[in-house]
Structure formats: structure tokens, C-alpha cells
Amino acid sequence: MDLAELNKVANAMVAPGRGVLAADESAGTCKKRFAAIGVESTEGNRRDYRELLFRSKGMANISGVILFDETIRQRAKDGTPLAKIIEQAGSLPGIKVDKGTKPIPFYPEEVITEGLDGLRERLVEYRGLGAKFCKWRAVIDIGPGIPSYYCVKANADALARYAALCQDENLVPIVEPEVLMDGDHDIDRCYQVSELALKALFHELYLARVKLEGMVLKPNMVVPGKKSAKQASVDEVAEKTLRVLKECVPAAVPGIAFLSGGQSDLDATARLNAMNRMGGGPWKITFSYSRALQAAPQKAWSGKVENVPAAQAAFTHRAAMNGLASMGKWSPELEKKAA
């Protein structure tokens, strides 16, 4: 393990004004999103859509791109590997390495992320394909009687084992313990579960001897459930999210790149901006968004070649807005000017 190199890559991923594009949707997720815009989810369409993102001016605000297994192997129409196009844009190619979630026996409604078997060999291959970092997502749901401590601990253990394998193969792990925002729970319940998940995670990372200087944390923001009768202001989300991070995340971690987790484009940007305005944490705070960066360009594109410039403009705008939010320099007026 080359910790100096891992730390260099981790810091580049959370550089001021830049964040990570999560373009690691599975074929199944792509099918749903493409269906919503009337596009058939073929390998060619998925390639063309991702290529238009990677060749856009919006990449100026993208430090790294999380790819899916299919995508890291694909070539653009001109024969250039998509991973190479990302590098040419000044960004780092990364790869999702987990195999998705499966139900935990005897724990109804709870899941564990699989994919540790054969992971070391896959990491060696992905590094050869150009990957500089990896991602593994754990899923913690909130509901009546859940999450159980067993679910939280099992997922934290898997995340730690994954992170150790990545670092041993000189790849920076993005560690993602996602507390879902589904359900009708309030913001305080989300805070409580997020605190539990983060404390369990860093305990397991310590036991696995993961070097915190060579990783990036990708957590959820502390938000009420989508069905909660009591929603929260931008400042309340920012304040409570910062509080739980300061309580749980060691200063050695270079940066925190939030997932959007079903938030609207503007909510994800505004809340990130508010956290950076409040400040006070020892780590850099930025974004690692999927839907909050891609919903607008997907709609603008709709599978038509003539819409590529409009889709690239939409992506460039959202990337720029979140780049500003990562420095606390965003404002709603900037959205209005663009409109």
C-alpha cells in the first residue's frame, strides 16, 4: 500500500469546487430511468448517454466518476475507452465493486451488501482498466423495529473489509453507509440511526486497520423521511448533518462526499451549500451525486442526437451549481439567472 498516493487521490476527489459524479447505475436502474424519458436501455444508448456527460464542459467541476462494470469496459464511438475520456477531462475514473443487496436471513426488511468473494481479483483487473478508486454501498433502512444492530454491524464489517482490500491494492475506497430517506420518520430518528451507522463503521474500519487518510466517506445527509409529516429547513438539515459528522467522523478522513439519496436537485445543492457556509469541520465537504446531477440532462437528452448540446448544458449547469455549493458560494439567484 502506498498511503501517500492514496491520500493524494483522496484529496483530489474532494478538491474545492469539484465533486464526484456517480454514473454507476446498474442496467436495471438505467432501464427504469431511460423508460421515464422514452428511451430503450440498450448498451449503445447507455454508452452514448454517458459519453455525452464525459465530453461536456461540466467535467470541469467533476473530480472523479464512479463507473459500472459495463461502462469501464466500453469505448466511445471513436474507439476511445470511456475511462480515458474521463482522464482526458482531468477527472479520475472509479468503479462500483459491490454486487448489490440481499435479504438478511431472519431479519425481515433488512439487507446486506454482497460482493466480497473474489473482490481482490476484481480490484486488480479494474486497476488495469484505469480505476483509481472504488465504491461500495451499504443500505440501512428505517422503519418499525429497524434497523437492528446486527444489520448495522454486518454492513459496517463488510464496508471495512472492502476498504482494506482496496487500500491493499492501492485503490481509494469510497465508503458509503446509506441511511435511506424512505419512510415517515422524523429528522431526529434519521440523526439517531446515522450516528449509530457511522460509529459502527469507524469502529470496524479501525479493527480492519484501514488508513483513514486514504479513503473518502459517502454518507447520507440527516433528513426526515419522504413521508414524514414534518419536513425540515435547509439550515436544520445542514446543522444536524454537521453535528453528527463532528460526533462520529475522525479528522484524519480527507473528505466527505454526500450522496443525494432521492433529494431534489435544488435541495441537494442548497443543503450542501449551507453546510459549507456553516463550516467548522476538519474535512472537505462536497458531493457524489447521481440523480441530482443527471435528472436534468437525461430529460433534456431523451435519446436524441440533436438534444446532446442541451443535455450537456443541463449537466454543466448542475455540476457548476454543486461546485459552488462545495465552497459555500451557491445562491438561489444563480439558478434563476441560468433559467
List keywords for this structure.
alpha/beta, 339 residues, two-stranded antiparallel sheet, eight-stranded parallel β-barrel, globular
What is the gist of this entry?
The chain has 339 residues and is of the alpha/beta class. It is 47% helix and 15% strand. The protein contains 13 helices and ten strands.
Q: What features would you describe in this structure?
A:
- With 339 residues, the protein is an alpha/beta fold.
- It has helices at residues 3-13, 27-36, 43-54, 69-73, 82-88, 119-128, 149-168, 187-207, 234-248, 265-278, 291-301, 308-325, 332-338, and strands spanning 19-23, 62-67, 92-96, 101-103, 111-113, 133-140, 172-179, 216-217, 255-258, 284-289.
- It has one domain (3-338): TIM Barrel (Alpha-Beta Barrel), CATH 3.20.20.
- The protein is 47% helix and 15% strand.
- The strands form two sheets. Strands 1-2-3-6-7-8-9-10 form an eight-stranded parallel beta barrel, surrounded by eight helices. It has a two-stranded antiparallel sheet with strand order 4-5.
- α7 packs across α8 (187-207), α8 packs parallel to α9 (234-248) and α10 runs parallel beside α12 (308-325).
- 48% of the residues are buried.
- The model has no long low-confidence stretch (mean pLDDT 96).
